Amino acid sequence: MTLADLSPLANHLWQSTLCAIVAWLLTLTLRKNRAAVRYWIWLAASAKFLIPFALLAGVGSQLAWRTAPATAQPRFSFVMDEISRPFVFSAPAARLVGERSPSDVFPAILLGVWLFGFAIASVSWFRLWLYIRAVQRAATQLSLNLPIRAMSSPARLEPGVFGIRKPVLLLPEGITERLTPSQLEAVLTHELCHVRRRDNLTATIHMVVEAIFWFHPLTWWIRERLVEERERACDEEVLRVVSEPEIYAQGILNVCRFYLASPLTSVSGITGADLKKRIEKILAHHTGGNLDLGRKLLLATAGMLVVAGPILAGLLNVPQSQAQSRGRDTANREFDAVSVKRYLPKGPISEGCDSPSDPVMLALVGCTLKDLVDLAYGLKSYQAQAKGPAWIETDRYVIQARSATPATETEMMRMLQPVLAARFHLIVHWEARQAPVYILEAANSGLKLQPASNTNRCGVVNVRQGTLKSDCLSLDDFAEALQEFVIKDRPVINRTAINKEGQYKFDLAYSLGDDLAAGPSIFSALPDQLGLTLKPGKAPVRTLVIDHAQRPEPN
Fold first, then answer.
1. Which of 12, 69, 220, 223 lies 20 to 30 A from 428 at CA?
2. CA nearest neighbour of 302 among 12, 62, 32, 37
3. Radius of gyration for the chain, computed over Cα atoms and rounded to the nearest angstrom
4. Which residues of 366-390 are buried (b: 16+ CB within 10 A; e: fewer)?
5. Can you list the alpha helix ranges (DSSP code H) found in 198-292?
6. Domain ranges of the chain
7. CA 314 – CA 14 distance, rounded (Å)
8. What pLDDT digit, counting tens, does each position of 378-413 carry?
């Protein structure tokens, strides 16, 4: 685990925090309405901790993949004399963080602290459950003609409902003698309200949230709001049935006088929340108003934004080329037949890895495993694999694979990955390693960039002998183009601190080698022609590491 692995969690936490703030604002707006509405708002804020927006965005991206047209055009294209191919921009190397790094001790410490807190919370809830279970076993049956089983317990506790699937009403011994029939009826009506609302189930959901996110103070604050609104919601239900609120209030006070103990979170009781405020609202016969049309629309809009917003974002943010590729991969995930053999020619073994292929047949001749990994994962020279046995650079193989349906070269290389995993038992991972890079900065003489001349051709780059031209590129894209077609041996990172959204025209002429008579080097051409410089530096570079590999068995 690295700090990069914590990034999704950090995003999820601030998104959940924002949802909790929105829930608080909504409950303030609806403070004169029924408590049941506010309760469900707080429960939604609690459940948000269990549902990352990334999950909803993933649903949207799946919908985009399913509905994308098969002829979607890539966003960027590059024209070269030798070859025409799409230019797919990857994230700048400075922003790439590996999945594993030996020096990342801090995330491991955080994980240990979280596990410790999670264990304490889980043990605490489990001990509470065992206690209530023991109380229930020691209780005796009561005949009260209720829709659920009622039991009398010798333990000093308030009336409450225990259990989710088959709830049981636990009453303290002697309660029928200490409360008048009217008071007892009101208290029982309150408890049956908890059963109808399935409050124990929703309380358990929030207990899970608290156990997982015990470190987040909002989860504890939300619990207090849930208990408060849960009890008020049942109070309002009782007041709709009881004609004299004083009887109900007196019943609650008598329960507190004779039986009040520490409230149990996992049990829906009678004395939860702020007792003084509850009694005041009961005596005022406050039952909360129904939602008018405006507040209904407000809740509906908030719900749509929270649920449909991330789905829509995932739907809109999937690149068309990715959707197209996904559509083809769905029908062409694996090769129909694969053959892997040692390359043993009659004459001397020639260097290189020949790949005469067609849309349904992949033929790789004389390739080392290192060559195959480079091809399968599309590695640049600066992403060379680390570790691995020595034979991966010496033993050569012939791989022939047939696809059931036509596939592009890129798709075939992707399909080669599971072949390497199955036949060579290849296990790899990505990690960020400090490596040489070139940093693109503004020259001291000042920028000499011109605004984009044709925004309809953004992303199109023409690369010919010693020239690189484009009518419309951002500086991030220009840095990628330099790395792809000019520098090649190391990443180029844009650190010009210029508007990321800005689009510019580029017309760069440079020499291809050491022959300065053919033109200035790229390092001289950039400041003279564009007001930019390339400076050597170091930054994290995404590198593929081979964890395990073994020679394949003969077919």
1. 12
2. 37
3. 34
4. bbbbbbbbbbbbebbebbebeebee
5. 199-212, 217-239, 245-259, 275-283
6. 1-72+305-316, 74-104+428-549, 107-290, 332-424
7. 19
8. 888 888 776 778 899 889 999 999 988 888 888 888
CA distance 522 to 533: 9
Bridge-based pairing state of the strands 460-464 and 77-80: parallel
CA distances to 122, 201, 216, 486 from 118, rounded to whole Å, are 6, 20, 12, 52
Stretches in the chain below the pLDDT threshold 70:
1-7, 58-104, 259-274, 313-333, 347-352, 354-357, 386, 499-500, 512-519, 555
- In a 10 Å sphere around its CB, with 0-12 CB exposed, 13-18 middle and 19+ buried, how is residue 316 labelled? exposed
Report the alpha-carbon distance of residue 267 to residue 264 in Å, rounded.
5
Q: Where are the alpha helices (DSSP H) in 139-198?
A: 175-178, 181-197
Residue 113: Cβ-neighbour burial (10 angstroms; 0-12, 13-18, 19+): exposed
Residue 134 CA to chain centroid, in angstroms?
Answer: 41
**CA 304, 306, 311, 314 torsion-angle sign:** positive
Q: What does the alpha-carbon distance between residue 461 and residue 410 come to, in Å, rounded to a whole number?
A: 20
Q: What are the start-end ranges of the H helices in 240-292?
A: 245-259, 275-283
Q: Which helix (H) or strand (E) holds 160?
A: strand 160-162
Contact predicate 210/221, CB 8 Å: no
**Interval 81-132: pLDDT, tens:** 333 333 333 333 333 333 344 445 777 888 899 999 999 999 998 998 898 8
**Beta pairing class for 450-451 and 149-153:** unpaired
Q: Which helix or strand (DSSP H or E) is residue 486 part of?
A: none
List the Cα angle 417/423/428 in 5-degree steps. Answer: 45
| Nearest-angstrom CA–CA distance, 70 and 64 | 12
Can you tell me which residue has the tokens 């149990």? 264
Phi, psi of 552 (to 5 degrees): -75, 150
* Torsion-angle region of 288 (φ positive above 0: left; ψ -120 to 50: alpha; else: beta): left
Closest CA to 436 of 511, 381, 371: 381
Q: Which two tokens stand for residue 522?
A: 């790229």
Amino acid at 41: I
C-alpha–C-alpha distance, residues 277 and 286, integer Å: 11
* Mean model confidence pLDDT for the chain: 80
pTM over 0.70: no
What 8-state DSSP symbol labels residue 391? G
Q: Encoding tokens for residue 145? A: 């003609």
